[in-house]
């Protein structure tokens, strides 16, 4: 049994499962066990993925065979043929420091080309937040979340990050696709409770339980997070001032297997998070005489600003196989809201010239259907569609000073209903034994703040040139609708001649981004267990979408660069042998833009003039990104294995202002994390209590202070620093 806990491959193993193309995959043996059960220990089920075929062994072989067949059919609906896929098995998720307690973004940072940013954001291949999340193949609409992560790592049985020239079934957000295969009651029977915590008041209890009864199976997980690291520190100090957060999460999955060809499933989630916004001491007041006008205003280090984020979603899916046809059709809904409360003593007014209670919400409801038709062994036709209907509401009650230095209140608010839609058709063709061509057309449209549409051709070619090697190349035409939660320009007129007036009054509508995307790469197995890969990409963009944080509320707003270019390359290697696993990635990227053509009121007039005539680096452009990790398991054949793992993340630094916008670079950094996990099988000699697990995790092992944002740059708000050394411990019990 291998211990590979991170693998990179240019194709999905679903291609082999569908018998349409060669897909180089590692001989991965992934242990799907009750949470906390180490690989090799007694669990409820074992899943082996070898050459794209899935076999399962359990005490319920008939139910498991049906589950495996339906899971295989679902995966084949959306293969990533020709794209670059970074796969994380269940073992990988458990091995990363923090394990299931780690945030989803911490996991994704271990893939090549993923850059770290403030507020929990990640940037994949030089794009800003254009990452879509899918649960069992169903895309979730965008939400308002900035700090919180609705999707918990412990809800994932495994996940993958797909980048590159994506096939036509992936639309709307296309920098990367995070596809999460959720846990279920068939393969994750039993429960687990854990308590995790330590430095900075960190307290993180959680529970999960799965089971099966007849044709029904279910899985639920919930947690509560209390800590003082909810938002990145605004200073390099060990503890952030005013940074308490409380978060509640729940995710559930219920399925009913009608027969061997039909299954109905429901996934639902709830996230509720409250944050204090960290302060920056020593800040000057907005106006020279504001100290006399606002004598009650606290110092900038004593402000009390807060933000609350809520997300609820549900997905109801029907999966059906009829002869040569397989389909999954789903309906879904997602509600996401964000509310900002300013300092109650008019501190925001004193330091920014405006104090506002701001609220935004987005309600998205839609449907998605995907169909696979196996016409012949060398031809597989896929087609489907997605439709989102969305309602966006924005309102704020602001206090500002007028020209007479009098406090006045201004109410703003607007709502809009719109839709996003896309449909596609593609053919996966195998003209010769070692060559696969995947080509298709996608039609997308948006009718929200802008009304646009586009027909997008895409093609990918995969060639098994020699033993152990796979080469791929592709072209994709992309259409990316703008974020629906953009700021309406009609509000600007109400702030004229006040302390919140902007230098620029123009506010053109944010438009859809249109891209030409090219990608090519190779993967080679050097020795059994050792593989290397290289990938290069180039994106030419029109109306490139970027996002920035403007004002005190941590609300990201979109804007366009008329022209954009993003290019780079990635190298990855992994080695897996027995109890030892190693991996390493590094990536080079360049992202530039020219001429801001929408939401201009957010920017300084001089910056707009310069950018209209010069190319500049995007604020999230990071030249070099690297990650590495290793794991070794002692006593791995016993009932009490000890696992030691470590990871590293390196960034050459995001952008900051110099003599030109985004002309400078934040200092480079490298952080190291480590984990020690001790498992005991049947420690209490009880048939109800199974594996007990103790863990110790250290984030930023060498306590290296590092900066993520300096507070300057196009669309950049406050300075942000990475987490200092944090020691956390935990205990979990499976039953």
TrEMBL record:
Keyword flag Transmembrane: yes
Locations listed in the record: Cell outer membrane
PROSITE patterns: TONB_DEPENDENT_REC_3
InterPro entries named among the record's database cross-references: Beta-barrel_TonB (IPR000531), Beta-barrel_TonB_sf (IPR036942), TonB-dep_rcpt-like (IPR039426)
Membrane topology, from the record: Multi-pass membrane protein
Record GO terms (molecular function): siderophore uptake transmembrane transporter activity
GO-annotated biological processes: siderophore transmembrane transport
TonB-dependent receptor-like beta-barrel domain segment(s): 274-701
Entry keyword set: Cell outer membrane, Membrane, Receptor, Signal, TonB box, Transmembrane, Transmembrane beta strand, Transport
Signal peptide interval: 1-30
GO CC terms of this entry: cell outer membrane
Family classification: Belongs to the TonB-dependent receptor family.
Protein name: TonB-dependent receptor
């Amino acid at each position: 049994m291998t211990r590979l806990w991170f693998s990179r491959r240019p194709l999905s193993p679903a291609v082999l499962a569908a018998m349409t193309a060669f897909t180089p995959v590692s001989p991965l043996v992934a242990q799907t066990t009750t949470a906390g059960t180490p690989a090799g220990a007694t669990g409820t089920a074992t899943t082996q993925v070898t050459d794209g075929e899935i076999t399962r062994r359990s005490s319920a072989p008939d139910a498991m065979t049906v589950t495996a067949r339906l899971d295989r059919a679902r995966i084949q609906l959306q293969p990533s043929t020709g794209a670059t896929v970074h796969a994380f098995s269940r073992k990988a998720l458990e091995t990363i420091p923090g394990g299931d307690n780690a945030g989803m973004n911490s996991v994704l940072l271990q893939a090549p080309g993923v850059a770290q940013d403030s507020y929990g954001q990640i940037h994949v291949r030089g794009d800003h937040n254009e990452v879509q999340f899918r649960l069992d193949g169903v895309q979730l609409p965008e939400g308002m979340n900035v700090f919180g992560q609705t999707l918990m790592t412990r809800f994932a049985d495994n996940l993958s990050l797909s980048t590159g020239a994506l096939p036509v079934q992936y639309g709307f957000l296309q920098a990367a696709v995070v596809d999460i295969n959720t846990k279920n009651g068939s393969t994750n029977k039993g429960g687990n409770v854990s308590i995790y915590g330590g430095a900075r008041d960190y307290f993180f209890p959680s529970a999960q339980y799965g089971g099966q009864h007849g044709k029904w199976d279910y899985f639920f997980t919930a947690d509560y997070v209390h800590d003082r690291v909810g938002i990145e520190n605004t200073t390099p100090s060990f503890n952030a001032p005013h940074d308490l957060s409380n978060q509640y999460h729940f995710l559930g999955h219920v399925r009913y297997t009608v027969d061997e060809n039909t299954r109905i499933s429901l996934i639902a989630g709830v996230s509720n998070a409250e944050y204090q916004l960290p302060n920056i001491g020593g800040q000057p007041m907005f106006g020279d005489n504001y100290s006399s006008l606002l004598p009650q205003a606290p110092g900038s280090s004593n402000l009390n600003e807060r933000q609350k984020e809520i997300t609820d979603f549900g997905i109801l899916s029907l999966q059906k196989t009829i002869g040569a046809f397989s389909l999954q059709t789903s309906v879904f809904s997602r509600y996401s809201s964000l509310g900002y409360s300013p300092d109650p003593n008019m501190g925001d007014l004193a330091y920014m010239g405006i104090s506002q209670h701001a609220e935004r919400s987005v309600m998205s409801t839609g449907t998605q259907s995907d169909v696979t038709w196996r016409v012949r062994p060398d031809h597989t036709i896929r087609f489907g569609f997605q439709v989102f209907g969305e309602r966006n509401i924005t309102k704020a009650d602001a206090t500002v000073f007028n020209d007479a230095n009098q406090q006045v209140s201004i109410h703003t608010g607007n709502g809009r209903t719109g839709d996003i839609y896309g449909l596609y058709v593609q053919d996966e063709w195998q003209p010769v034994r070692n060559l696969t061509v995947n080509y298709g057309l996608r039609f997308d449209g948006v009718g929200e703040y802008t009304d646009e549409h586009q027909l997008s051709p895409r093609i990918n070619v995969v060639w098994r040139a020699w033993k152990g090697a796979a080469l791929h190349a592709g072209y994709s035409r992309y259409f990316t609708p703008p974020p629906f939660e953009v700021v309406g320009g009609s509000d600007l007129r109400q702030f004229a001649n006040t302390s919140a007036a902007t230098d620029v009054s123009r506010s053109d509508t944010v438009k859809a981004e249109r891209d030409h995307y090219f990608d090519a790469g190779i993967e080679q197995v050097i020795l059994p267990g050792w593989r290397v890969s290289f990938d290069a990409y180039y994106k030419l963009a029109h109306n490139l979408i970027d996002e920035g944080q403007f004002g005190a509320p941590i609300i990201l707003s979109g804007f366009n660069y008329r022209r954009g270019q993003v290019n780079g390359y990635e190298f990855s290697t992994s080695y897996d042998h027995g109890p030892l696993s190693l991996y390493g990635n590094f990536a080079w990227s360049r992202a530039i833009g020219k001429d801001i053509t929408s939401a201009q009121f957010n920017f300084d007039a001089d910056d707009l003039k310069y950018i209209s005539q010069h190319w500049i680096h995007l604020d999230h452009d990071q030249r070099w990104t690297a990650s590495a990790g290793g794991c070794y398991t002692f006593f791995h054949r016993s009932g009490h294995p000890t696992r030691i793992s470590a990871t590293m993340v390196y960034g050459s630094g995001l952008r900051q202002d110099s003599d030109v916008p985004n002309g400078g670079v934040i200092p480079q950094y490298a952080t190291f994390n480590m984990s020690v996990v001790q498992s005991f099988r049947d420690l209490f000699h009880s048939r109800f209590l199974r594996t007990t697990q103790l863990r110790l995790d250290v984030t930023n092992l060498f306590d290296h202070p590092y900066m993520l944002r300096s507070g300057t740059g196009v669309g950049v708000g406050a300075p942000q620093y990475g987490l200092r050394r944090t020691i956390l411990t935990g205990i979990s019990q499976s039953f």
